[in-house]
């Protein structure tokens, strides 16, 4: 067996090991609420405690939302500034249906999911008529309109600035209360797994390959008979649907809806997570979201700690601002880790194997239009 055959055999072995490793990781994460583990400085307590489970569940839901944005930005190259609109549709939609009707949780969730699909189709059909920065601005306009409706409570259903509290009459008892945080943790983990599998399926499908080709060269895809608009609309709607699903789980976890979930700043945060993890990488989106969420939560505790309060003013002032610390971390990653955290991991693995990643740009999806049959 020559070197090329050995390399191909090694690659096949690694690809075969990935599903097994992923399943093992999910099983380990699923067992965390049953274990007494802690990571000082990262987790607020043991993994079976409600506070820690709440934080971890928030990490999984944030990762799920980042994955849905990865479909738009990482796969199709669509930089949307309004992705928070569909997340808010899930949060507010489920809260309103449960508050105004007697429908149980699962039928109410199905109804809201259909509503999210219809909303995404209508917005996407209009927004995708333009490209580039124009597309980003149109999506931003729709998101801002949704945020204004939520804040002003124009129709008396969103609660205005105060938001809405979850009506628990139609929610199973196992998903209510601090003592059931463990169940909410498992719900959040299930949402992340479903989202990841859907994203994986889309990326490996014919539509996903075509979307990647459109990202690289839309004109070429159109010339060879493809339909870029239809493919982008499908990806847009799928990403929005996953965001709506995540929003409904978020409502159960947080027990309420607030206008912050519909703001354009929230979408920009998703963009930061995807870039931090590595544009074009599924695992990068997950890792970027988890790292960002943990930093956001733990740096807030650091900023208000006595250790920072005792520092000289020249250090105390910047270190007491969590967003300053997050921004600094993001700048350092962009400057010194091209391809984000996923790119750094790929380079490290390639160095250990003595190989160079394809194209020399780890963490960035390879152009695939050459292997597309449209």
UniProtKB/TrEMBL annotation:
Keywords: Cell membrane, Membrane, Transmembrane, Transmembrane helix. It comes from Nonomuraea phyllanthi. One of its GO terms (cellular component) is plasma membrane. The lineage of its organism: Bacteria, Bacillati, Actinomycetota, Actinomycetes, Streptosporangiales. It is a multi-pass membrane protein. Its main location: membrane. GO terms for molecular function: branched-chain amino acid transmembrane transporter activity. This is Branched-chain amino acid ABC transporter permease. Coiled coil: none annotated. It comes from the Bacteria.
